[in-house]
Amino acid sequence: MTDQRLLARITYDPEIFGGKPIIRGMRISVESILSLLAQGESAEAIIDDHPELEPDDIRACLTYAHAVIARDSLDAVRRTRQAT
């Protein structure tokens, strides 16, 4: 599946999580999936816990994260963290 098709799975709705990116209009945020992956959860375990998700939804979250950080730099993140 192409990046564009994967990214089409990521939507937003101002009524759900304040407009944060969500998966296919569901009440599952990209942020929560990325957090689970960062904590070491496998894609399979996440899908087991959320059977409405598909493997391409997990890939879509990773593709979205890549698209966002590809436009940023680690230095920008470090400067923001040091300022707080």
Describe this structure in words.
The protein is mainly alpha-helical and 84 residues long. It has helices spanning 3-7, 30-38, 43-49, 55-69, 74-83; strands at 10-11, 22-23. The protein has a two-stranded antiparallel sheet.
Gyration radius, in Å: 14 Å
Q: Roughly how much helix do the residues carry, as a percent range?
A: 40-55%
**Topology pattern, helix = H, strand = E:** HEEHHHH
- Overall pLDDT score: 88
End-to-end Cα distance, whole Å, is 40 Å
Overall geometry: globular
Counted by DSSP, the helix tally is 5
Helix-and-strand structural type: mainly alpha
Strand content: under 5%
Low-confidence stretches: none
Any chance you could write out the topology, listing elements then pairs?
Layout: H1 3-7, E1 10-11, E2 22-23, H2 30-38, H3 43-49, H4 55-69, H5 74-83
Antiparallel strand pairs: 1-2
Question: What descriptive keywords fit this protein?
Answer:
single chain; 84 residues; mainly alpha; two-stranded antiparallel ribbon; 55% helix
Give a short summary of the structure.
Helices cover 55% and strands 5% of the residues. With 84 residues, the chain is mainly α.
